[in-house]
Amino acid sequence: MRMMPEFPADFVWGVATSAFQIEGAVDTDGRGRSVWDTFVDIPGRIRGDHIADTACDHYRRYPEDVELMRRLGVDAYRFSISWPRIVPAGRGTVNQAGLDFYDRLVDALSAVGIRPMPTLFHWDLPQESEDRGGWLRRETAEEFAEYTEVVAARLGDRVTDWITLNEPFEHMALGYGLGVHAPGHTMGLAALPVAHHQLLAHGLATGVLREAGADRVLLTNSYSPVHPTSESAGDVAAAEAYDRLHHALFTDPVLLGEYPDLSIMGIDRPDVVRDGDLAVISRPIDGLGVNYYSPSRVAAAENRAMLPFQLVEFDGADRTDFGWPVIPSGLTRTLTDLTARYGAALPPLWVTENGCAYSVEADAGGRIHDQARIDYLDAHLRAVHSAVEQGADVRGYFCWSLLDNFEWAEGFDQHFGLVAVDPDSRDRRTKDSFDWYRRLIADQTGRRAAAE
């Protein structure tokens, strides 16, 4: 394997997880139900009807996971905080036991020199909030700000870097538009108010975190560079429509203070926007999180009554077990396109998720030789470095994920982890990719130390 090029001296190396996917303990210590608890209970919603009641048992076994990260040598850990574990009803009574858990986790990370970078919302909306209307309702954004204030008051003396939301496009599209994720609504483009209310929640929370003394506030979006299937006018217009819905809708209001023109899709901006909302949404942030897995190939829709575009498979590309094409150059393009599109309005970029699903059984000696994951990570890190060389200001990289986990509607069938988790005992076993990433970080930080 070729030596990885040297990244900037202050580049942050990390791993990422999310609360619902790893914590388990769903009925423990006062945690309320989330929309994902409800969704999992519906037969047929989750592959194999898997349940997440225990997940990776991180709630009990977090010391083991912190030790794994210490061995890995990461600078930072991106995790998420479960809103229903802190405010079970979404508003009102605070569950101190939930705060105590994250207090212990942050202390454990700090004790071994790992920077905690929590995400405040990674799709696990309290079920009682959903019962009141969920993200279709403006008040949910206000309740999110109140929850943020509670968390920041407890952890803000040790946590200085915060991420407000994770992938608001996916939560809107998959959870409210198409119904394949919780809360399971099938509203199509009528789900557009969900976009605005999530962005408003981000802006309100940003203000709360500023008052709490945060050093950095980020928003994490998913980005997937869009390729028209052909140069025909229809396919090019379809690609532009998809780009505006997936990317510009969740980035322009934050960085430019305005919604993109959505007329290409036959719709206006969300009709729930009030005077002053965009000023709140566009409060300055200190970084933009980029989640990248693969690009998108788009053609004009055969049935324009639904959407003006349709997604088309890439021909000839290698694929992960999830079926996603492996195209590392898309990550370079994502980072350089954002740099070119937003210019001086763009804050520093952070690759807050990148990884791949491959299932590999342990050999007779207990080793998990996941070379495909190593190849994937190596190629995508080189893609990040190429973007840096082309002028993108990228501050860090977080591998998705530390652990094999509950992969939403796929249950436990997709394995993204550097560490395998036994489905019965929940015991951990590192893979070859864990050792590869450990050596890479040691090499990069060793070069950093030598330069100092």
Summary tags:
alpha/beta, 14 helices, Glyco_hydro_1, 452 residues, 13 strands
What's the topology here?
Blueprint: E1 12-16, H1 19-22, H2 35-40, H3 58-72, E2 76-80, H4 83-86, H5 96-111, E3 115-121, H6 127-131, H7 138-155, E4 161-166, H8 168-177, H9 192-211, E5 216-222, E6 226-228, H10 233-255, H11 277-281, E7 287-291, E8 296-300, E9 309-312, H12 329-342, E10 349-354, H13 371-389, E11 394-400, E12 419-421, E13 428-430, H14 432-451
Helix pairs in contact: 3-5, 7-9, 8-9, 12-13
Task: Please describe what this structure looks like.
By secondary structure, this protein is an alpha/beta fold. The chain contains 14 helices and 13 strands. The protein has a single domain (12-451), classed as Glycosidases (TIM Barrel, Alpha-Beta Barrel). It has helices spanning 19-22, 35-40, 58-72, 83-86, 96-111, 127-131, 138-155, 168-177, 192-211, 233-255, 277-281, 329-342, 371-389, 432-451, and strands at residues 12-16, 76-80, 115-121, 161-166, 216-222, 226-228, 287-291, 296-300, 309-312, 349-354, 394-400, 419-421, 428-430. Strand 10, helix 13 (371-389) and strand 11 form a beta-alpha-beta unit.
